[in-house]
Amino acid sequence: LFLATLTYDTLRFEYEDFPETKEPVWILGQKYSVFTEKEEILLDVTSRLWFTYRKNFPAIGGTGPTSDTGWGCMLRCGQMIFAQALVCRHLGRDWRWIKGKRQMDNYFNVLNAFIDKKDSYYSIHQIAQMGVGEGKSIGQWYGPNTVAQVLKKLATFDTWSSLAVHIAMDNTVVMEEIRRLCQSNFPCAGAAACPAVESEVLYNGYPEEAGLRDRLSLWKPLVLLIPLRLGLTEINEAYIETLKHCFMMPQSLGVIGGKPNSAHYFIGYVGEELIYLDPHTTQPAVEPSESGCIPDESFHCQHPPCRMSIAELDPSIAVGFFCNTEEDFNDWCQQIKKLALVRGALPMFELVERQPSHFSNPDVLNLTPDSSDADRLERFFDSEDEDFEI
User: Fold this and answer.
1) Which of 121, 193, 253, 284 has its CA 20 to 30 A from that of 51?
2) Mean pLDDT of 355-371
3) What is the pLDDT of residues 15-31, one digit of tens each?
4) Residues 80, 84: Cα–Cα separation, whole Å
5) Hey, how many other C-beta atoms are within 10 angstroms of the C-beta on 68?
6) Does residue 374 carry a pLDDT above 50?
């Protein structure tokens, strides 16, 4: 009764917009039936953080744009996939957003990390300005690989989340490389960001104690981003089943990409259609109140999710996974190995134990935000940047 009231009265979903099908619906590793779990599907979709174009935010760099309409859709998609990682990290995959219900402080800490202001960890300001180091001027279009590289750099400042971010290049995931990154157990980057455990000091407004405790643990939670090209001008249908299976994995963070001239954040599929959140809506910028409270309704998509045919997907994408523990990572590796044996499912990337001899090691070389992967790795995917905007 509660979910029915929530769906019809509060969220006002129109069920006829969602297909009546016997096919299972997969949303970021969770399986649903349209006939018996429609409310749960829509509540799950609504609970994802939805970042769209915004207008009238503080000028980027002091004198730059005050809106990202027309150029920021891939940046917003990058925010959404990374926000899902932070939700899994601090709230858990089963957390749900309910309109009007008081949320825990960690929820607002996650949301505040993406608010459109210069001192938020993953704000449009930070992404755009960090992108300059990746060869992108402010206001220039990004591809999936570029936004992944920028988010990796920004994550080094986020000591509250203490994430290990790995970007697997050349269609290859090296298990040894990831374990070394997640088990590095290195101390804080600097003394100023590393107070004593008993201290209640806040770092950029976030509780530092939790981040410090996690940094001293044996495994740093992993955000794995894999930029891929699944065809020349359109997706090779041999990859479709593999792509579907990625949404079935409990570690799934979804996919960023889209179709020509339009970037989306894909969170699941049903039948032969992908389910996604669309950033192409311009909303007024949101400012926290004097008490620090953030009006959050506009950060949750309260209408039926968008869908598109998988065959329309642009072949240049980035797939994301989150492994909170080493057990999660080992389980993910086993699933990928089994997926390679599925008939009709062509592997999208290779999973290997050790680094091939011709590879460099970007994670060891890039422990500081000033290092640039562009110095070591060819940017094959960035040639597609101009295709991701309208």
Assistant:
1) 193
2) 52
3) 346 778 899 999 999 99
4) 6
5) 26
6) no
CB 239 within 8 A of CB 348: yes
Task: Give the global pTM.
Answer: 0.83
Phi-psi category of residue 12: left, alpha or beta, with phi > 0 → left and psi -120 to 50 → alpha:
left
Give the three-class secondary structure for 355: coil
Cβ atoms of residues 157 and 206 within 8 Å: no
The set of catalytic residues is 73, 278, 280
Average predicted confidence (pLDDT) for the chain: 83
Q: List, for residues 275-313, the tens digit of each pLDDT value.
A: 999 999 999 999 887 777 889 999 999 888 899 999 999
Helix (H, G, I), strand (E, B) or coil at 390: coil
Please enumerate in sequence order all residues whose Cβ is within 8 A of that of 122, keeping only pairs 6 or more positions apart, or say none: 79, 82, 83, 113, 114, 151, 154, 158
**Can you tell me whether residue 286 is helix, strand or coil?**
coil
Cβ(164)–Cβ(181) under 8 Å?
yes
SS3 180: helix
Please give the biggest Cα pair distance in the chain: 59
The answer to whether the beta carbons of residues 296 and 209 sit under 8 Å apart is: no
Instruction: Note the pLDDT of residue 208.
Output: 52
Backbone angles phi, psi at 228, to 5 degrees: -140, 155
**8 A C-beta contact, residue 250 and residue 93:** yes
The residue with tokens 């004593």 is 196
Q: Which helix or strand (DSSP H or E) is residue 339 part of? A: helix 326-339
Closest residue by Cα to residue 271 from 26, 54, 36, 92: 26
Res 60 pLDDT > 70:
yes
Distance CA 243, CA 248 (A): 9
pLDDT band at 213 (very low <50, low <70, confident <90, very high): low
Query: At 265, is the secondary structure helix, strand, or coil?
Result: strand
Within 8 A by CB and 6+ apart from 144, the residues are: 74, 227, 256, 257, 316, 317, 318, 381, 388
Helices (H), 117-272: 124-130, 144-155, 175-182, 208-215, 240-248
pLDDT tens-digit readout, 238-282: 999 999 999 999 999 999 998 766 899 999 999 999 999 999 999
Tokens of 338: 């089994």
Give the mean pLDDT of 193-202.
Answer: 34
- Please, are residues 326 and 218 in contact by the beta-carbon 8 Å criterion? yes
Query: Which tokens is 344 given?
Result: 């009709």
- Nearest-angstrom CA–CA distance, 279 and 297: 15
